[in-house]
Design brief:
Pfam families: HTH_8. This is Fis family transcriptional regulator. It comes from Sulfurovum xiamenensis. With 244 residues, the protein is an alpha/beta fold. The protein folds into three domains: 107 residues, 3-Layer(aba) Sandwich (Rossmann fold), CATH 3.40.50; 54 residues, no CATH class; 64 residues, Orthogonal Bundle (Arc Repressor Mutant, subunit A), CATH 1.10.10. The protein is built from ten helices and five strands, in the order αβαβαββαβαααααα. A five-stranded parallel sheet has the order 2-3-4-1-5, with helices on both faces. Strand 2, helix 3 and strand 3 form a beta-alpha-beta unit. The chain is elongated and about 80 Å long.
C-alpha cells in the first residue's frame, strides 16, 4: 500500500473530502505543481484502483471502458479530453495545471489544489529526514556522521529537487580526497581547453580552499599562516575570486 505523510491543513482537507465522498460515484481532480505528491496521494486514498497515465490517450479510453473506478495521472497531457465520458464512473485525476477550466468543471465534481512544498514546512522536515535515511542507506554511510542541519535544500521542483539536494549533500559529506580528485579529473577531462587553462581552472582549488579556511578560522591573518602565504597574497586571491 502506498504511504503518504502530510501535516498540511490543505492536504488534510483533501483527504477528509475524499473519505466523505468515497461511497459516491463522482469524479475528482487534484491540480498542483509537479512532484508535490499528487499521484502518491491518489494511490494512498485508492490503493486498489487501476492507474493509467494521460500520456497515452488510447490506453486511457480502453481503461475507461473496462473500469468503473480509475486513477488518471498527467490528465493535462491527454490529447482529446472532450472525448472522455465519466458517466456512472468514479475518476480520480491528477494534473500539473488546470488546462481548460470549463471542461474541468464539466468533468469533475470536485477540484482540489495541491500546495507546493514551500507551503508545507512540516512536510519538508519530514521528507528531508526520510531522504537522508534513504541516501545514507543507499550509499552505505553511517547516518550519525552526516551533517543534517546545514543542507542547502532546493525546493524549485518540490520533492524531486529536494531529494537531489539531500543526496548531493550526503555524498559531499562522505567524500575522501581520492573521490574529489576523481571528480576533478573527469570534470577537467571534459572541459579542459584554451590557452590559459592553468590560470582559468586554478580557482577550482583555490576558491574552496580559501572559503573553507575563512569559515573555519574566521581570520585572514590566521589563514595566511595556515596556508603558508603572506597576508597580502591572501587578500589578493580573495579579491580575484570575489570571496565575501
Amino acid at each position: 500500500m502506498e504511504t503518504f505523510f502530510s501535516k498540511s491543513d490543505k492536504i488534510q482537507h483533501i483527504i477528509k473530502s475524499f473519505t466523505l465522498t468515497k461511497t459516491l460515484f463522482v469524479s475528482s481532480i487534484i491540480i498542483g505543481e509537479a512532484h508535490t505528491g499528487k499521484k502518491s496521494l491518489a494511490r494512498y486514498l485508492f490503493p486498489d484502483t487501476p492507474l493509467v497515465s494521460g500520456n497515452n490517450q488510447k490506453e486511457v479510453e480502453e481503461a475507461l471502458e473496462q473500469n468503473d473506478e480509475l486513477i488518471i495521472t498527467n490528465f493535462e497531457k491527454l490529447s482529446n479530453q472532450n472525448s472522455l465520458d465519466f458517466t456512472n464512473k468514479r475518476i480520480i485525476a491528477t494534473a500539473d495545471y488546470m488546462g481548460n477550466p470549463e471542461l474541468i468543471d464539466d468533468l469533475f465534481a470536485f477540484i482540489y489544489t495541491m500546495p507546493s512544498l514551500q507551503e508545507r514546512p512540516e512536510d519538508i522536515t519530514y521528507l528531508k529526514d526520510l531522504f537522508i535515511k534513504e541516501a545514507c542507506s543507499t550509499l552505505m554511510i553511517d547516518e550519525n556522521t552526516c551533517d543534517s542541519e546545514h543542507i542547502p535544500l532546493n525546493l524549485t521542483k518540490n520533492t524531486k529537487s529536494l531529494k537531489r539536494s539531500v543526496y548531493i549533500h550526503v555524498m559531499k559529506q562522505s567524500m575522501h580526497a581520492q573521490d574529489i580528485e576523481e571528480i576533478l579529473y573527469h570534470y577537467l577531462l571534459k572541459h579542459l581547453d584554451g590557452n590559459d587553462a592553468y590560470r582559468e581552472y586554478l580557482g577550482l582549488y583555490e576558491k574552496p580552499l580559501i572559503e573553507a579556511g575563512l569559515h573555519k578560522f574566521g581570520s585572514q591573518l590566521q589563514l595566511s599562516q595556515v596556508l603558508g602565504i603572506n597576508r597580502n597574497t591572501l587578500r589578493k586571491k580573495i579579491h580575484e575570486h570575489n570571496i565575501d
